[in-house]
Design brief:
The complex is a heterotrimer of chains A (318), B (233) and C (294). Chain A has 318 residues and is an all-alpha fold. Chain A has 13 helices and two strands. The longest helix of chain A has 27 residues. Chain B has 233 residues and is of the alpha/beta class. Chain B has one domain: 3-Layer(aba) Sandwich (Rossmann fold). In chain C, α2 packs parallel to α4. In chain C, β3 and β4 form a beta hairpin. Chain C has 294 residues and is mainly alpha-helical. Classes of the chains: A mainly alpha (318), B alpha/beta (233), C mainly alpha (294). Chains in contact: A-C, B-C.
Chain lengths: 318, 233, 294
């Protein structure tokens, strides 16, 4: 009962949010929240650490951008194309990575994503270092004009809510239970007769597809797709969001996404304030030192804060 | 004279599992003591706890009168203890001779390599083979030989007769008698009662992580019934 | 004279460059493998520490006038110390946990190191002059041999082979091999395994720093030079498998050469060929070419 209340409150909050905050920023947060939730499906619930999720996020962004800009596809088909691309790539990368266990799996996802990065770097349609610009928003179902930020926001919100509901559904389904069993004790799951490789592959494809959906929507919202979206630093960023928020929790990744994006936006201001207060000039460059701050948060989280914010809360409230 | 080994109120855990509950035993210098008991009673855990190889430990373990309960594993060995684990732990990435030479010399008075090769000619023959390519019996001999090399005078032997051919078991039995005659202190965990009985001075029976009975070698004949009850399935 | 339509001199020049890159692959994957064997940690920071080695050499020359030759010894020592501090203060808390935390920690450290260097030096490269004793090239008749590049290959091979010898043939190496297999048992013999772990990490990253100093005159010294390399090293390590020292060396060299040849004949493929090979190896021999499944 209280959970339903909580969900409703959050939904209401999200519905009125664009009247208080910039819709584009909110949409960006929603996209990354979905990205992180998709990633969490793999690490939090199946126990597989993928370090190459940028391939799906950024790859779908490029494909959708290209579909909308060059092929003139309508919004919904463009998004679908991007998502399917991500699912396909997820099937290939997942299929190869699953052949090894543990940390090898992670290294393979990273390496294969890097390969895709180079492909996108060299492919002419991506625009290389400049990126894919001027992606049109177009119309939803031919009637709803998405160039209006407020309209776009509600469409994006609908997509995100549905995706999140799908993730929740999957986690609580029998399929989700098997995934958790695989995470807890893979040999046991195998001995119980489950074709573990198939479940891992399915989870991987689903995670990739949803990450691709997030990337596709982000490309349309912001109007461009860049190499940053497919670089391994983006893969690292989504890991950090999930870690900070809480791996294996439902809302952890969402919270992590909010925090990290807010941090990215505000880092310049914090740096300027620190420079004023301490008279150390170097703090003024803090805004460009997102990398360093990200690394610092990583180190602190891994050493002292592994359960993440939601994870800690859940543990304390037990 | 100080006891070679004195254990009081020892508790030991593997993670959350509480294996040893209030373990008490003592071994005098030059004694051979056998730990008997059913599988899972905590005999191997006792030996591992002495070496600091379990999880958390509490209580008191004194080796030659010195408290070692808080020491890390690598310092405990330097008290002159040689540990021969149940799984033998021969390193597959080392040759037989490398395995033999691996443990550093702890004190003077250990057997020289020549003496060891005299006692175990098989090991000399196979010294360049990969450690795990040796037969079960040879690996067992290697496991014991390498701690004899170090000068350790307190030996912890875990099931050394297990799974070995009778003729090898006899050889091991003779070896232990020889060591005993030389004044080594030995704590043995043994399922094979017939192997342990002629060698040991005293016996402890362990159940559920603590000692439930102890008796001397000369009390054996009178205690057979009690033993059967304690060790029987 | 031509080989497959490419003039011989140009072909051999690319081959040499491939060997040079292969030498770096070999040394870095060797260090990574040694660290992984004993610590069970994939040291993502390997690339960043390689970069630090190069930067230390550059800073030594630029700010203190310390020669390349001194830095060749000094930089690895300094990085070894730095690495040992990292291991003692941070890594060692993670050994009981899932391996992925070691990767995440070293990833975070990579970001910090790169971020710091980037904030001071930007992303562009600093030039580093080839030391005068190794400058120029000798004419071998069929090609011009840049002396410095030959030096890189020779120095790397020597260091790799010495490492292999120490690990496989000496008593010290026996401790490392045994510790990799069963560290608790080695401790039970009285060897200070935690200290060995720290020293091994220091050694592994020293190798990376040594490669960095060697690389400084060849590539440009840039804060990004490590991150460009580390992912390729992961692929090298997956291809070779981490069970064998010689395997890591051979795989690294071979992949460098293959990459070099690809640059000659199929330049568009050169940045991805290593990953393509990795995909093939995964399909055909998942444990890696020389791997022993851990």
């Amino acid at each position: 009962m209280s959970r339903k209340l909580g969900y409703t409150a959050v939904l209401l909050g999200l519905l009125i949010a664009p009247f208080a905050l910039y819709p584009v920023l909110l949409m960006k947060i929603l996209c990354f929240a979905l990205f992180a939730c998709a990633f969490n499906l793999l690490i939090g619930f199946t126990g597989l650490l993928s370090f190459g999720h940028a391939a799906f996020f950024g790859g779908a962004a490029y494909i959708t951008g290209h579909a909308l800009k060059m092929w003139g596809l309508p919004f919904e088909l463009g998004i679908l194309t991007g998502t399917l691309f991500a699912a396909l790539v997820g099937w290939v990368i997942g299929g190869l990575a699953i052949r090894r266990q543990g940390i090898y799996f992670t290294m393979i996802t990273l390496a294969l994503a890097q390969m895709l990065f180079f492909v996108f770097l060299q492919a002419p349609f991506t625009g290389g270092e400049d990126g894919l610009q001027s992606i049109p928003r177009g119309y939803l179902l031919g009637v709803i004009d998405l160039r209006n930020d407020l309209t776009m926001y509600y469409v994006v919100l609908a997509i995100m809510v549905l995706s999140f509901a799908l993730i929740v559904r999957v986690i609580h389904s029998p399929f989700g239970q098997v995934l958790k069993a695989v995470r807890e004790n893979e040999p046991r799951a195998t001995s119980l007769g489950y074709e573990v490789a198939r479940y891992k592959s399915l989870a991987f494809v689903l995670s990739a597809a949803l990450a691709g959906l997030a990337g596709s929507v982000k490309a349309v919202v912001l109007g461009f797709g860049t190499l940053t979206d497919v670089h391994w630093s983006m893969s690292g960023l989504v890991v950090l969001m999930t870690l900070v928020g809480g791996m294996g929790t439902l809302f952890g990744p969402v919270l992590g996404a909010i925090i990290i994006i807010a941090l990215e936006n505000k880092l310049g201001d914090v740096g300027a304030w620190l420079a004023q207060v301490t008279a150390v000039e170097w703090f003024n460059t803090l805004g460009e030192s997102v990398t360093m701050i990200t690394g610092l948060i990583f180190v602190i989280c891994v050493l002292a804060f592994r359960r993440g914010i939601i994870g800690e809360l859940v543990a304390r409230l037990r | 004279m100080t006891l070679a080994l004195e254990i009081k109120g020892l508790q030991a855990w593997y993670g959350e599992s509480h294996i040893l509950h209030d373990m008490n035993l003592s071994v005098a210098q030059g004694e051979v003591v056998t730990l008997l008991g059913r599988n899972g009673a905590g005999r191997t855990t006792t030996l591992r706890a002495i070496m600091g190889l379990t999880g958390r430990r509490s209580g008191s373990i004194k080796i030659n009168g010195i408290e070692t309960i808080a020491l890390p594993t690598h310092r405990i060995a330097h008290f002159g203890i040689g540990y021969c684990p149940e799984e033998r732990a021969i390193f597959s990435s080392l040759s037989a001779e490398e395995n033999l030479m691996l443990p550093p010399t702890l004190t003077a008075g250990g057997m020289s390599v020549d003496e060891i090769y005299q006692m175990f000619p098989n090991l000399e023959e196979r010294r360049l083979s990969q450690g795990t390519r040796l037969s079960g019996g040879e690996q067992q001999m290697l496991a014991v030989a390498r701690i004899l090399r170090t000068g350790a005078k307190l030996l912890l032997l875990d099931e050394i007769s297990e799974g070995l051919a009778p003729v090898i078991v006899q050889a091991l039995s003779r070896m232990i008698s020889t060591l005993k005659a030389k004044g080594y202190t030995i704590v043995m965990v043994e399922q094979n009662f017939r192997f342990a009985a002629p060698l040991a001075d005293r016996f402890y029976v362990i159940e559920h992580g603590h000692v439930v009975a102890q008796f001397n070698a000369n009390e054996l004949s009178t205690k057979t019934d009690e033993l059967n009850e304690l060790l029987g399935v | 004279m031509e080989i497959f339509g490419i003039p011989l001199a140009a072909f051999l020049g690319q081959l040499l460059l491939g060997l040079v890159n292969g030498s770096f692959y070999a040394m870095l994957s060797l260090g990574l493998a040694v660290i992984f064997g004993l610590l069970n940690v994939i040291n993502f920071a390997h690339g960043a520490l390689y970069m630090m080695g190069a930067f230390l050499a550059w800073m030594g020359l630029q700010y203190f006038g310390i020669s390349y030759w001194v830095m060749l010894l000094l930089a690895p020592l300094m990085i070894a110390l730095f690495g040992m501090v990292i291991e003692r203060s941070m890594l060692r808390w993670l050994y009981q946990l899932d391996h992925l935390y070691g990767l995440l920690l070293t990833f975070g450290i990579t970001l910090i190191i790169e971020g710091v260097f980037r904030s001071f030096y930007g992303v562009s490269g600093q030039p580093f002059a080839v030391p005068p004793q190794l400058a120029g090239a000798t004419d071998l008749g069929f090609m011009m041999l840049p002396i410095y590049r030959a030096w890189v290959v020779v120095a790397s091979l020597v260091v790799c082979l010495v490492t292999w010898f120490v690990i496989e043939k000496t008593r010290l190496g026996a401790y490392l091999r045994a510790g990799t297999e069963n560290p608790r048992m080695v401790e039970a013999f009285g060897i200070n395994v935690p200290l060995m772990v720290t020293l091994t990490y220091g050694f592994g990253v020293a190798l990376a720093a040594f490669a960095g100093v060697l690389a400084a005159p060849v590539l440009q010294v840039s804060p990004l030079m490590g991150s460009n390399l580390i992912v390729t090293i992961f692929a090298v390590v997956v291809i070779g498998g981490m069970g064998s020292i010689l395997g890591s060396i051979v795989t690294g060299l071979a992949l460098g050469v293959i990459e070099g040849l690809t640059k000659v004949f199929y330049p568009e493929l050169s940045s991805t060929v290593v990953f393509i090979i990795m995909a093939i190896v995964l399909l055909v021999r998942p444990a890696g070419l020389f791997g022993r499944e851990k």
